[in-house]
Design goal:
This protein has 3 domains: 128 residues, Rossmann fold (3-Layer(aba) Sandwich), CATH 3.40.50; 134 residues, Response regulator (Rossmann fold, 3-Layer(aba) Sandwich); 159 residues, Alpha-Beta Plaits, CATH 3.30.70.270. 46% of the residues lie in helices and 21% in strands. The chain is built from 17 helices and 17 strands. The strands form 4 sheets. The protein has a 5-stranded parallel sheet with strand order 2-1-3-4-5, sandwiched between helices. A 5-stranded parallel sheet has the order 7-6-8-9-10, with helices on both faces. Strands 12-13-11-16-17 form a 5-stranded mixed sheet, with helices on both faces. Helix 13 crosses helix 14. The longest helix has 23 residues. 31% of the residues are buried.
């Protein structure tokens, strides 16, 4: 089944001020980060042989020596996958541009100003930046769909894609009708970041196939790259007008081909994220989360396996808004999203179901494990201290759980988890309620 926890992200905190280290360590630990504290930057170097940082928080002052060299070594040791955030005293703010330029040249990624005397630190802003950097660090498989014709050069480009670590699915032109059936369209929408076509196939033109793909709502935004021996500029222009996103003339430089595919992938990833993700939390929005739930049900049905579905709701959320303001409520929503992301596994799916309600798809087979995971989340989130302006406060959550395939219909599954959430609230909030089919039947009678 795998570990119940995702690998914790390592944050190195470097500060000569022990109070600042303790404040940052306490705040970051409650969200599930692994924290390592250092009084000086020089102490970090030997530790790199034991642990690699995902994020370095460096409290900077002019007395720190060899910053450029040490930061360069940290980046080299982490293969430039680490992000470095600098903390500067408020007194440096007057020369903000100059300091930001220095930090960029050193290899840093962001600056925050703090008050070293009052220990006033923009915790929420730093956490939001850490979230952003960690999202960028996620390495996901990049699926490419390649529709072959009878040209021999197809194999050259397929090999180049595989060498560049793309996951390439190859279909022949004879399989295109099977590929575009209703079940496969959902898979294409969920998995693929680019479709590669030729201009010519025995039974149809590549442009005609591109036009068909653009007619299918689920596929119309997936970028299409054409490869052809055709060098005519008018053909190139016509191809781009009819749905092509890029055009490679064979033969070409391997670097140009791979760079073109990466460029299409990155642009589509940003576009897809804007469509699928909730702006406030960067979790899946309601529509895309339900689509992924449906996709998961189809996958698990074929594999004859089950999973848990949970609905999580922040308790007394209206009181938070009334007492501390709506922006404080928004911060609690962001904090819960962050907490869930760093305390669930990479292959568990999380969505913002609406308002202060969240949905979770847990890849577990047994209800006891699902309950145990949710109980741990419930308990630990109640200990998180939320900050907004001068306010410091805590919140709890109520959780309802149901299992697939006990509830094999998507509407039933959602209703069961929702009823569990209702029962959790009814029983006094701040608890986990698991719902079985017999309970739901009794309730409906």
């Amino acid at each position: 089944m795998g570990s119940q926890h995702r690998l914790k992200k390592n944050i190195f905190i470097v500060s000569f001020n022990i109070e600042i280290r303790l404040i940052l360590s306490k705040e970051f630990t409650q969200y599930g980060y692994q924290i390592f504290e250092f009084a000086t930057l020089q102490q970090v170097l030997p530790f790199l042989k034991i642990q690699k940082p995902d994020i370095v928080i460096l409290h900077y002052n002019s007395q720190i020596s060899d910053v450029n060299l040490i930061v360069a070594e940290i980046l080299e040791e982490t293969k430039h996958k680490c992000n470095i955030i600098f903390l500067l005293n408020e007194s440096h703010r007057q020369k903000d541009f100059d300091h930001r330029l220095d930090i960029v040249r050193i290899g840093g990624n962001q600056i925050f100003y703090i008050n070293e005397e009052t220990k006033n630190i923009p915790i929420n802003e730093i956490l939001n930046t850490i979230d952003y950097f960690l999202e960028l660090q996620i390495a996901e498989p990049i699926h490419i769909l390649y529709i072959k014709n009878q040209e021999s050069y197809n194999d050259i480009y397929i090999d180049l894609l595989k060498q560049a670590r793309f996951d390439v699915e190859v279909f022949s032109f004879e399989q295109i009708r099977e590929l575009l059936n209703e079940k496969n369209i959902l898979i294409l929408q969920e998995l693929y970041y680019c479709i590669i076509l030729d201009l010519y196939y025995p039974d149809f033109l590549g442009i005609e196939l591109a036009s068909i793909l653009k007619q299918i709502p689920e596929l119309k935004y997936i970028p299409i790259l054409f490869i052809s021996k055709e060098k005519d500029i008018h053909r190139y222009i016509y191809t781009m007008q009819k749905g092509g996103d890029a055009y490679i003339i064979h033969p070409t430089q391997p670097e140009l081909f791979i760079t073109t595919v990466f460029s299409l992938y990155h642009k589509y990833k940003l576009f897809k994220s804007a469509l699928e993700k909730d702006l406030m939390t960067n979790l899946y929005n309601h529509h895309s989360f339900l689509r992924k739930l449906s996709f998961k049900m189809n996958i698990f049905k074929k594999a004859h396996q089950g999973f848990a579905y949970a609905l999580i709701d922040i308790d007394n959320f209206k009181k938070v808004n009334d007492q501390y303001g709506h922006q404080a409520g928004d911060q609690v929503i962001v904090n819960l999203a962050r907490f869930l992301k760093h305390n669930l596994r990479d292959y568990d799916l999380i969505g913002r179901y609406g308002g202060e309600e969240f949905g979770v798809i847990l890849n577990v087979q047994e209800k006891e494990i699902a309950i145990k995971i949710m109980e741990r989340l419930r308990k630990n989130f109640s200990l998180v201290l939320h900050h907004f302006n001068s306010y410091n406060f805590q919140c709890t959550v109520s959780i309802g759980i149901a299992m697939y395939p006990e509830f094999s219909d998507i509407t039933e599954l959602i209703s069961a988890a929702d009823y569990g959430l209702y029962e959790s609230k009814k029983q006094g909030r701040n608890r986990v309620v698991y719902i079985e089919k017999t309970q739901l039947k009794k309730n409906s009678q």
